[in-house]
């Protein structure tokens, strides 16, 4: 009884093939070798067609391996057949027929492996999926088949089967991700609320394409066509082109819609998604046509970049033109300050994208003005902080300077110089805290800017303290209390009365002022207490005795030293009947 191999086929069928491979010479005994190879190939195909050897996922058997070797050897032997003779012509016709049948067989098996064993090719993927999840043994089979087909001169058929199969699988993924082509005119007419949802879906699709689908297709192609890297690159490039063109259509339409400041962040999301797409497929670009596609992708991305630049220009204009005739009650943080700082905080979350956008914009400006980029950056950034030397940092510096100028102008709406200082202190502190509270903003603005801002806020604090409490401390001065070398009651009465009157007026007025930042409010109260309470305690202790026997002394001495701290604690809380406390 004959011994069978691991495929169930008699070893007698394989042994002659081993001997033929080991002894064959393509330039001798061609007819005999051709006949041997042809029989083995036809026998394999016949067994497959009869269902005796079904396609399977296990390790490639020895018989299957020899079948592919036979195909490649038979293909090579066609080159040494004497085509001028009748017998040679007949032999060539037989060889071509066998090869054609072999190619049809391998093409079908290749297609079956591609379409039936791709795992998540038929299930929705996400950014963390292993795509496409062909088992290693299937990838090995596909590689062997592709190598044999290409070696035998059937590269076109092989690539066509692979290309159609993978393109269909990719489109199926897009369908499962609910990607739908939207007409450009429909995009223009769509309300922003609806369009936001479409953009979110598009970004999700683009990100999955960049992080999972394109890298997966690239890896698969490189494995299947391991022996033919140029073919692998070409197949991936063609697939990427057909997909990217469809994906870009939507982005192109969005780039033509009107962008406002509130829409910028969605536009930056699209910018980043296109950037990642370029990164995922750019390595496959090798010829002029592919570079043209890359240029088109980059042009679309850069249009979103220019939109971003224009939005910041509009923000500059809105700050310049934000003129107010009525001051904010209580010297509180101005709505413009809140808006600008919160906007910049969110913008800086896109720091990498905006750095690149403004860098490219600076290059264009430098080119158009015939200056170098270094000259441009230096002229726009007179700051000595390293973080402030990039075009984006310079842009933010410019916005901060415009905001400062606007707030300075608005502070002049207050008649009371002390309230003017409170207003500038509130807004300056808010700006500083927003910058320090965001790692992105702080890195863009730099530590030097933060230190300068802190110094400015402290100066407003000093100005307020001098303007408000300097006059009070003058009243509590011991100078001028004596007449002809003696302390007189009228002078003591006047000083105590003036102190009480002035303190009442300050409390009545400044208790309605607003300092929303708890730390700043505490710092103000502590600093006032530090100068006022010791001064009053000293004055009270020195001169209270002169009114001990005075009738109605309480008319002049309204406050005990311990009352002062309570009064100070009531400052800057805002008037609850006329003012709503604002949140930072």
From TrEMBL:
<comment type="similarity">
    <text>Belongs to the EXO70 family.</text>
</comment>
<dbReference type="GO" id="GO:0015031">
    <property type="term" value="P:protein transport"/>
</dbReference>
<comment type="function">
    <text>Component of the exocyst complex.</text>
</comment>
<dbReference type="InterPro" id="IPR016159">
    <property type="entry name" value="Cullin_repeat-like_dom_sf"/>
</dbReference>
<feature type="region of interest" description="Disordered">
    <location>
        <begin position="1"/>
        <end position="33"/>
    </location>
</feature>
<keyword id="KW-0268">Exocytosis</keyword>
<dbReference type="Pfam" id="PF20669">
    <property type="entry name" value="Exo70_N"/>
</dbReference>
<keyword id="KW-0813">Transport</keyword>
<dbReference type="GO" id="GO:0005546">
    <property type="term" value="F:phosphatidylinositol-4,5-bisphosphate binding"/>
</dbReference>
<dbReference type="InterPro" id="IPR004140">
    <property type="entry name" value="Exo70"/>
</dbReference>
<protein>
    <recommendedName>
        <fullName>Exocyst subunit Exo70 family protein</fullName>
    </recommendedName>
</protein>
<keyword id="KW-0653">Protein transport</keyword>
<feature type="domain" description="Exocyst complex subunit Exo70 C-terminal">
    <location>
        <begin position="200"/>
        <end position="569"/>
    </location>
</feature>
<dbReference type="GO" id="GO:0006887">
    <property type="term" value="P:exocytosis"/>
</dbReference>
<dbReference type="GO" id="GO:0000145">
    <property type="term" value="C:exocyst"/>
</dbReference>
<dbReference type="Pfam" id="PF03081">
    <property type="entry name" value="Exo70_C"/>
</dbReference>
<feature type="compositionally biased region" description="Polar residues">
    <location>
        <begin position="1"/>
        <end position="10"/>
    </location>
</feature>
<dbReference type="InterPro" id="IPR046364">
    <property type="entry name" value="Exo70_C"/>
</dbReference>
């Amino acid at each position: 009884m004959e011994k069978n191999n691991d495929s169930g086929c008699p070893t007698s069928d394989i042994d002659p093939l081993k001997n033929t491979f080991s002894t064959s010479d393509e330039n001798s005994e061609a007819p005999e070798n051709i006949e041997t190879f042809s029989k083995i190939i036809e026998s394999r195909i016949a067994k497959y067609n009869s269902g005796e050897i079904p396609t399977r996922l296990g390790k490639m058997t020895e018989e299957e391996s020899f079948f592919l070797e036979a195909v490649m050897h038979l293909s090579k032997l066609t080159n040494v057949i004497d085509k001028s003779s009748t017998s040679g012509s007949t032999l060539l016709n037989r060889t071509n027929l066998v090869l054609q049948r072999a190619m049809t067989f391998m093409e079908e098996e290749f297609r079956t492996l591609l379409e039936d064993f791709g795992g998540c090719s038929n299930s929705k993927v996400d950014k963390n999926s292993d795509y496409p999840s062909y088992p290693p043994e299937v990838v090995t089979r596909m590689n062997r088949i592709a190598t044999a087909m290409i070696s035998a001169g059937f590269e076109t058929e092989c690539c066509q089967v692979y290309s159609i199969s993978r393109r269909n699988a990719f489109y199926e993924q897009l369908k499962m991700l609910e990607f739908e082509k939207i007409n450009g005119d429909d995009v223009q007419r769509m309300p922003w609320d609806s369009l936001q949802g479409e953009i979110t879906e598009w970004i999700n699709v683009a990100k999955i394409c960049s992080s999972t689908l394109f890298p997966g297709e690239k890896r698969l192609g490189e494995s299947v066509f391991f022996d033919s890297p140029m073919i692998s690159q070409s197949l991936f490039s063609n697939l990427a082109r057909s997909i990217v063109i469809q994906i870009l259509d939507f982005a192109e339409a969005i780039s033509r819609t009107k962008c406002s400041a509130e829409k910028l962040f969605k536009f930056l999301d699209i910018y980043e998604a296109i950037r990642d797409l370029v990164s995922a497929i750019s390595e496959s670009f090798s010829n002029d046509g592919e570079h043209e596609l890359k240029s088109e992708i980059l042009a679309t991305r850069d249009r979103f970049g220019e939109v971003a630049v224009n939005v910041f220009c509009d923000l500059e204009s809105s700050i310049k033109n934000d003129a107010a005739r009525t001051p904010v009650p209580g010297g509180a943080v101005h709505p413009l300050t809140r808006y600008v700082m919160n906007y910049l905080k969110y913008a800086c979350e896109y720091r990498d994208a905006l750095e690149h956008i403004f860098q490219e914009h600076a290059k264009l400006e430098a080119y158009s003005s015939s200056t170098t980029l270094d000259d441009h950056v230096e002229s726009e950034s007179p700051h000595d902080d390293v973080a402030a030397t990039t075009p984006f940092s310079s842009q933010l510096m410019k916005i901060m300077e415009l905001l400062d100028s606007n707030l300075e102008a608005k502070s002049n709406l207050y008649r009371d110089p002390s309230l003017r200082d409170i207003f500038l202190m509130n807004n300056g502190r808010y700006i500083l805290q927003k910058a320090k509270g965001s790692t992105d903003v702080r890195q863009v603005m730099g530590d030097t800017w933060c230190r300068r801002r802190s110094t400015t806020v402290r100066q407003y604090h000093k100005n307020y303290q001098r303007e408000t409490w300097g006059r009070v401390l003058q009243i509590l001065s011991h100078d001028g209390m004596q007449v002809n070398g003696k302390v007189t009651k009228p002078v003591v009465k006047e000083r105590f009365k003036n102190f009480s009157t002035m303190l009442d007026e300050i409390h009545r007025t400044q208790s309605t002022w607003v300092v929303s930042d708890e730390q700043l409010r505490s710092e103000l109260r502590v600093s006032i207490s530090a100068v006022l309470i010791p001064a009053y305690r000293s004055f009270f202790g020195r001169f209270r005795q002169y009114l001990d026997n005075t009738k109605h002394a309480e008319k002049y001495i309204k406050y005990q030293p311990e009352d002062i701290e309570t009064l100070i604690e009531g400052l800057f809380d805002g008037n609850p009947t006329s003012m709503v406390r604002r949140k930072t």
